[in-house]
Design a protein that fits this description.
The chain has 507 residues and is of the alpha+beta class. The protein has ten helices and 28 strands. β3 and β4 form a beta hairpin. InterPro entries: DEGP_PDZ, DEGP_PDZ_sf, PDZ, PDZ_sf, Peptidase_S1_PA.
Length: 507
């Protein structure tokens, strides 16, 4: 069953992979293929080089298992596309935790520093702007292509070290919903082509004729399969970016399932003549909730588009297409869309004002980038909020390697409304000192209360520490050892010892 997601004891067995490494793996970076296809890509005729730029990004992320420490700086390369308004389009994950961005022309080798104008990590798209407003004079903005459908031939523009632009062409084999970043799904083109000149470029443009049809999302050289960020997604991003402030892609904020099961249909009284999807969960405070949708409703139609029993609508070019594409790409944040529902034997309509669900609005944020992870160190206890970035420190198999009780929160966060927590606060580790003997092996312990005061987010910790109980700081924990007591009079000494021994500044 597909859901629409709008809107995660003991010492770790390994240090885990940094979050940026996980982002790079998502992009499918494979480097230059070692074997060439029988037919090599042909040089591009025309002035394609004037529409492309080399992009070099230096970035430095943070270690979430040691939130006071940064990773080693890394440099990534890309081929950006000039798209007008003095801006350059690249993949969004390229600029995550960026420290310096440089643009370079292919023909004259002129260079200029740049900044991020707009970024959307969920859609994996970003616009860069050179600091010198005259740098892109004489460059050619690449127009957006029209609709792309199965059977169309697209070209992936690659750049040789000398600056020559070559194209690898191939047919579009399918157009379907695909995973972009974390649990975000958008329309994706599947292209059959080989990329012998990728040269570790994260961003590569995909064209239809001389118009931009997409950006490479992932590449599997073994199967010559290329996944492409689709044109409608790029068009939506550019339209929103032109109307500051950038709003992001809209969401309806509900989970749904199919209505194929005849027993379910009988249970809810859904007539055979009606088709739609069964609403399993309405996310509290989201657009669907505010519009009055309920769990148990059946969504029959969104706008002018009737839905099938599997949650699809009829796209004029692609045929049966997921309603996720309909909501996220046909509409914009702030649009009010009529939803036709079946409820208690009657058909009714509610008006849903679509909104974007920001990462900080999740119980377990899907990503934390461009800033250091917030944390507190209290008596050697390292406290922070659970996030997907933290879970991904467990490596590419984090979904099985991370602690199961933390994975439970990530996987079921939209169904955990009862305790009204805003975030999951954990003791991620303990810094060894003479004062933490017996606690130094603890990690991934959930904090529920301090001094009898509920902890619903990290910001609740300091106010709770201002009210010791019987002369001690009393930490209530979900897991063993259930309780930890700290002497407030010793906290200053512990902080000083940690700073002297480990060079860690106490926030």
């Amino acid at each position: 069953m597909r859901s629409e997601r709008f809107g995660e004891n003991g010492r770790r067995s390994a240090r885990g992979a940094p979050i940026i490494a996980a982002l790079i793996l998502l992009l499918g970076i494979t480097g230059c293929a070692m074997t060439r296809p029988a037919a090599l890509p042909a040089p591009v005729i025309g002035d394609a080089h004037r529409a492309l730029l080399r992009v070099t990004v230096t970035r430095q992320g943070h270690l979430f298992n040691r939130p006071w420490q940064q990773q080693q700086p890394v440099t990534q390369l890309a081929i950006g596309v000039v798209v007008g308004d003095g801006q350059v389009l690249v993949n969004g994950l390229l600029v995550a935790d960026q420290r310096y961005i440089e643009l370079e022309t292919l023909d004259t080798r002129r260079k200029a520093p740049a900044e991020v104008a707009v970024v959307d990590y969920e859609a994996n798209l970003a616009l860069l702007r050179p600091l010198d407003p005259l740098f892109l004079e004489g460059r050619r903005a690449l127009p957006l292509a029209g609709e792309v459908t199965v059977g169309d031939r697209l070209g992936v523009w690659q750049v040789r070290p000398g600056g020559d632009v070559v194209a690898s062409e191939g047919p579009v084999t399918s157009v379907a919903l695909g995973a972009y970043f974390q649990e975000n799904h958008f329309l994706t083109y599947h292209l059959s082509a080989s990329l012998p000149y990728r040269f570790n470029h994260i961003t590569l443009p995909v064209v239809k004729g001389q118009a931009l049809a997409g950006l490479v999302l992932r590449h599997n050289p073994a199967g010559q399969a290329v996944e492409v960020i689709a044109t409608p997604v790029i068009r939506h991003f550019l339209e929103d970016a032109a109307n500051a402030p950038y709003q992001g892609f809209p969401m309806g904020a509900f989970h749904y399932g199919p209505t194929l099961d005849p027993q379910l249909r009988r249970y809810i009284g859904l007539p055979e003549a009606l088709s739609g999807v069964y609403v399993r969960k309405v996310i509290r405070g989201g657009p669907a909730d505010q519009a009055g949708m309920r769990a148990g409703d059946v969504v029959l139609r969104i706008g002018d588009h009737p839905l099938t029993n599997t949650g699809h609508f009829q796209h004029p070019r692609h045929g049966s297409t997921s309603l996720v594409h309909l909501i996220r790409t046909y509409y914009h944040v702030g649009d009010t869309v009529p939803f036709q529902l079946f409820r208690d034997g009657a058909v009714l309509t509610v008006n849903v004002r679509l909104a974007h669900r920001r990462p900080e609005q999740y119980l377990v944020p899907p990503y934390v980038v461009d800033r250091a992870p917030e944390h507190l160190i209290v008596g050697g206890l390292v406290l922070q909020e659970l996030s997907m970035s933290y879970l991904r420190e467990y490596g590419s198999d984090w979904q099985s390697a991370a602690p199961i009780h933390l994975l439970y929160y990530q996987q079921n966060q939209d169904y955990l409304d009862e305790d009204r927590r805003e975030k999951i606060v954990i003791i991620s580790s303990v810094i060894p000192t003479p004062y933490t003997i017996g606690y130094e092996t603890l990690s991934n312990i959930e904090v529920t209360a301090i001094n009898g005061r509920p902890i619903r987010k990290l910001a609740d910790v300091r106010p709770a520490l201002a009210h010791p109980v019987d002369g001690f700081q009393r930490f209530e924990l979900r897991q063993h050892p259930k309780l930890i007591f700290l002497d407030p009079a010793e906290l200053g000494l512990i902080d000083e010892m940690i700073t002297q021994r480990y060079g860690i500044a106490i926030p």
